[in-house]
Amino acid sequence: MKTPIGGGKGFPRTDASRAQWISQHRSGLSSARTGQLLERYGTRAQEVIEALADGHDEALDFDADFTTGEIRYLAQHESVVHLIDLVLRRTNHAFTGGLSRELLEELAEHTGAVLGWDEAKRAQEVDATIAHLKDYNGVDVGGTSVQAPTAVPAS
């Protein structure tokens, strides 16, 4: 017997059940955006959707596939201590080839707003993340921005 964990529990397995889940959990978001969150977070997307209801949710400048509200949610609820936690364990940024210094600075800004980081701490987290990615993952982020993934579906 397979036992789903986390967001896999109760995950809709058919097109019809997926459409029903999206319809029941939209909470003011578009179907496309709700579907994106369902794919990203599983049925735990409901918690993310509730967190986004405050209306302070805009696409990131350097990765329009993620939003400011998502980053704040992850920082607050997913045991993020360092920026590298967010980058490697809570988002797909390290796996999609879309990392840049600018994106890391933007992520640090929104994560730091939740975790109480000042400007010096944000800069330290960005530098530590860049060093970790280079030393342990062979990724040279440098200072060059790369093409961001597709945009967040309209709310």
UniProtKB/TrEMBL annotation:
<keyword id="KW-0274">FAD</keyword>
<keyword id="KW-0560">Oxidoreductase</keyword>
<dbReference type="GO" id="GO:0004368">
    <property type="term" value="F:glycerol-3-phosphate dehydrogenase (quinone) activity"/>
</dbReference>
<keyword id="KW-0285">Flavoprotein</keyword>
<protein>
    <submittedName>
        <fullName>Glycerol-3-phosphate dehydrogenase</fullName>
    </submittedName>
</protein>
<dbReference type="GO" id="GO:0006072">
    <property type="term" value="P:glycerol-3-phosphate metabolic process"/>
</dbReference>
<dbReference type="InterPro" id="IPR000447">
    <property type="entry name" value="G3P_DH_FAD-dep"/>
</dbReference>
<dbReference type="InterPro" id="IPR031656">
    <property type="entry name" value="DAO_C"/>
</dbReference>
<dbReference type="InterPro" id="IPR038299">
    <property type="entry name" value="DAO_C_sf"/>
</dbReference>
<dbReference type="Pfam" id="PF16901">
    <property type="entry name" value="DAO_C"/>
</dbReference>
<feature type="domain" description="Alpha-glycerophosphate oxidase C-terminal">
    <location>
        <begin position="2"/>
        <end position="122"/>
    </location>
</feature>
